[in-house]
Structure formats: C-alpha cells, structure tokens
Specification:
The chain is mainly α and about 70 residues long. Helices cover about 60% and strands about 0% of the residues. The relative contact order is 0.20. It contains four helices and no strands.
Amino acid sequence: MATEEKSKGPASYFPSIEKKYGQPIEHWLDITRRLRGMKHMEMVSWLKTEHGMGHGHANAIVAYVLAESK
C-alpha cells in the first residue's frame, strides 16, 4: 500500500500557488532567486506588488528560496 507524503513547511503552499497564479512553482522560484540580495520582506513585497500575490504565498516562496542557500 503506497502512501503519499504531504509537503511540509513552505512547500505545502506550492499546489495552491500553481493553481491560483497559473504558473508552475519553478517559474516563481526562478523569479525569486533573481531577487537574492534583497531582504526577506523586500522580496515578499516585490512579489505582492509586481505579481499580485497574497502575503502567505509570497512569503512561502521567499522562505523556500532563502532556505536553499543555507
């Protein structure tokens, strides 16, 4: 019997981000990776302003990208 493991942390938002904004999550991660050098909340604000993202979705993407570099 196969069990599907649910995503935890920021990645748990990815399916709803893809559904709501119509792009694969890799699209949003690539855009956000180009913002490195900005502070966390600056990146969140940019995604909200430039792409109309909700705070939770933008924050999840930024947190995921910043965690990659740790």
